[in-house]
Amino acid sequence: MAPGRIPVDGLLLHAGKLVTLAGGSGPLGGRVSDAGVIEDGAVAWAGSRVAWTGASREAEAALDLAPGAFAHDAEGRCVVPGLVDAHTHLLYAGSREDEWEERLRGVTYAEIAARGEGILSTVRATREADPETLRLLATARLQRSLENGVTTVEVKSGYGLTLESEIKSLQVLARINLDGPYEVVPTFLGAHEVGPEFRGRRPDYVREVVRNWIPEVARLGLADFFDVFCEKGVFELEDSREMCEAAASHGLRVKLHADEFFALGGAGLAAELGAVSADHLICARTEDLEKMRDGGTIPVLLPGTSLLVGAPWAPASVMLDMGLPVVLATDCNPGTCPCEHLPLMGSLALGGYRMPPLTALAGVTRNAAFAVGRGDRLGRIEPGFQMDAVLLEEDSPAGLFVHMGSRPARAVWKRGRLVYQKEGTRVPESPRAGR
Amino acid sequence: MAPGRIPVDGLLLHAGKLVTLAGGSGPLGGRVSDAGVIEDGAVAWAGSRVAWTGASREAEAALDLAPGAFAHDAEGRCVVPGLVDAHTHLLYAGSREDEWEERLRGVTYAEIAARGEGILSTVRATREADPETLRLLATARLQRSLENGVTTVEVKSGYGLTLESEIKSLQVLARINLDGPYEVVPTFLGAHEVGPEFRGRRPDYVREVVRNWIPEVARLGLADFFDVFCEKGVFELEDSREMCEAAASHGLRVKLHADEFFALGGAGLAAELGAVSADHLICARTEDLEKMRDGGTIPVLLPGTSLLVGAPWAPASVMLDMGLPVVLATDCNPGTCPCEHLPLMGSLALGGYRMPPLTALAGVTRNAAFAVGRGDRLGRIEPGFQMDAVLLEEDSPAGLFVHMGSRPARAVWKRGRLVYQKEGTRVPESPRAGR
Q: Closest Cα of chain A to B305: distance in Å?
């Protein structure tokens, strides 16, 4: 090893633009003007962590590449941090595709639910599925997501609605994490809906979640987060507060589905509770958004759901004007947005929110990492951070979003390992630096 | 050959739903309730044409499969007609990705154009590109489109804006058609914008198009359609009328970019001229839409462009209520919607237009075929029609749209040939019928 050189065992050279999103601390509030772009950039890593970034022409002098390691050539394409999908419900069985023809012909969700369809059909199918079936269904979705450049995915339980089936779902997530390469952030959403056994007895259900389910899930260490579907007619503000406070007392951090269909004040509650994120926020009040900003609660927006259910776009520009760090996520779920294409949420954000591309990029990388509690090690290409990165087809970050519905990723690295290469392509090796 | 049996040389059995869109004549107006679905359906073909459709269990008795021919098994998945993208500008060189950060930060299109960027940068790059480069760029886009299930694509010239470069573009399209498997419908859009050599001299440009370009393009037989960007400040109504009438007198059928940003009355003009389609129509007046319906001019809607440029959704529900046959297309172009994902336009239609899935499906198949003048042989799975079909990943037509940005096609047939199979999958052979 040459003296003074950094020992590394992986290197990617000649990114036309290496978009690092590095520097400083915390999420990036407001519109992002400095994405830390390095022209003709290079990134080197040791084990699973980034060891060095800089200009490609400086790599040789700076680095000592381990024998047998690969140096890859990005051939001038753009490289961005691995994307983080901060809000999904992708662990489920069954399909609800057939609901759409009816719903778009005017049959109401309530009528569909009254027939035992809607969310309860997903609950039924998910309860019936054995863990291996659930694992295969979820990993197929995670693989499609990975192929779109997504290296970390928050996944909520919430289609079990009994302690046993919620734990089954969370255990499947733990297993997926062990197997890799997918990195899943597990969230306990036992409060997704009142379980069918408690129909008409919401207070009993809330008591059950508070007294028995939260302590057990916390004891088993199966979830990073606790989340509630706080919405008029589902869990009211006081229910949500009670459950979230119980979760916090057991060491679970809190997220909240807030103000999606009504201005109930969920955003303000999330801020008051010190929640890590408040999600949806279509009807959030400006004063509640200000509380979120002041308290450090991150807004997670789900434009795919707005589109498909015909809801208004969330007030993203208001949030950006306030300096909030806006996050974009898929909400991947069988009822309102069965979508695994996180870059497409950026497309919708450009279009519906009029969000500039670099701001959208921060919303699916650095800021999203903070929304899942991992902003200290994910979402950037920066020494010390995990080497999760995507080699894009396009030359610029905007290309990730404006080529709507494209297959934007040529290659994906997760924890320093090349875990995906698009069929028919190969990331060529580069002459080694340091030789 | 068994007596009374239909001789065929290809067969696809066991489509869970074979969505034929067959029967009757003409496009399907209004909301579609009968998509001609055959449960456990089969389709057989001879050469490039469909020879028979029916229930799988009836195939053996009905058909005589040629020796050496394949019988494929859809394994219960949904099969739909090959999709038709009825409005694209996908023949171009250069990239304008970098404009988006500026535009979404408030720099106007006029300011960008004043620097020689915007459409003129595409014109410059397209003029400079040799035919082989243009062919490769276009076929890469057509291949991505094919992999999304699109078997026919209308492509406009219009980034040359000199007779020579417009002819170069149209000749590239002719070459692509000869090579296959892509089926391209060529449209002459010399009136996309006033060419830079005629800046400030629009009447001279219009005269040039009328007197010299239209006759020459028609003489060479390079275009099915003539199209004009009829818009305030580009080509006014009277310019458009003059050019379209000249085109019609030379045997070219007419399409019109109409009422995208202003209610200029382009939709009414299109109806008056007997245009095959009027496209965009965001600001179209109801009385003009009625004229279109009465005259048989088909509305082609481009929701991807509405989304990305931040324009309103076109009044699709009004059109459907009137009984118009609504078509959805990508508008694939470098400036406002660089998208090759036609099924995603269905997603946007479900969301933005509140269009039911079967209606969206007709809008990208049967009705789209009529919008490109090929409704007599494309857009349906029906005896006598071309065997263009898509084996979907999903079990229902809604799946094509609600899994937003997914890779919906497992396999694609064009003119009876299997031209695409998704990597890692194989359409299994089925025990032969008739043996």
A: 9
